[in-house]
Amino acid sequence: MRIVFAGTPAPAVPSLRAVAASAHDLVGIVTRSDAPLGRKRVLTPSAVAAAAADVDVDVPIVKADRLDAAATAAIAELAPDLGVIVAYGGLVREPLLSTPRHGWINLHFSLLPRWRGAAPVQHALIAGERTTGASVFQLVAALDAGDVFGEVRYDVPRGATAGEVLTDLADAGAELLVRVVDEIAAGTARAFPQTGTPTLAPKLSIADGALDLTASADVVLDRFRGTTPEPGAHVSFGGARLKVLAAHRGPDATLEPGVLTASGRDVLLGAGGGTTVVLKTVQPAGRSAMAAGDWWRGVRVDDPRVALPSATEATS
Fold first, then answer.
1. Which residue among 13, 64, 184, 282 is least enclosed by CB atoms within 10 Å?
2. Tell me, what's the pLDDT at 290?
3. Is the dihedral of CA 97, 203, 114, 88 positive or negative?
4. How big is the CA angle at 116 (ends 44 and 63), to the nearest 5 degrees?
5. pLDDT recorded at residue 310
6. Cis omega before residue 95 (within 30°)?
7. Rounded to whole angstroms, how far apart are CA atoms 236 and 300?
8. 149 contacts 182 by C-beta, under 8 angstroms
């Protein structure tokens, strides 16, 4: 089959490579436009655009932030039999939805209908789920609502962050995706309606990374893992955002929520219900990442504690 692949971030790259190495013809790659990154705002191609240079095929790349009329026309000229989309970052609407003969299939990083939306892994971890997965489904106009061709289940490793889970699911999902493509080409693919109550996983904002220390340490760490590395877990200390880059469960202790104290080379942070969180690596505003103990040695506050939800929000 003639396949057009659409994707943008790093989790889409294993699927791009798997499709390119398959028995099918990759006739085009669609990705979002180069974006300014870093403090110097250097225009940088997406992970998929960068990986396309390593794919051993010579195919056109369509860079578009929206799949508008111009993008639709460019894709239609490629005469695809099937569209494959993995974390592109935009909606596919008619007439593009029906342009390929077999429509579009989507690799989504959840067990649908759970966590429909842009941030399924992040929301699953924040909710404390220990099993998730990836699904390949037929793209329809409604958000992530199409019939499912197949899924792969995944047990979340203890302490794994959203970034680590996405890396694993990207590899497992790529294998599933190519298997479904093969079945569609052979005419043996079967898709089944989604069953169960849908849950939604909208894109996260910086505010979603705020750690509420009035909750138990387990709940705090679920949010930490779900928002690491993006949009970034943080607490407010001294009116500024202190990013939490590495943390784990601490011992139960009589430490009030939000109170900080030294714990060997680390820092102990009080949470709800007499539980604690161990801070391993942090990043103060405007500075580089550092060991929490090194940061602690520079703290000059009589009563060191982070702000609780009722306090003034942190500034950037």
1. 64
2. 95
3. positive
4. 25
5. 66
6. yes
7. 16
8. no
Sign of CA dihedral 44, 208, 87, 16: positive
Q: What is the mean pLDDT of each run of 10 residues along the chain (316 residues)?
A: 96 96 95 81 88 80 94 96 96 95 98 97 98 98 96 97 98 98 97 97 97 97 98 95 96 91 91 96 94 91 85 42
- Nearest CA to 19 among 65, 51, 66? 51
Chain centre distance of CA 105: 19
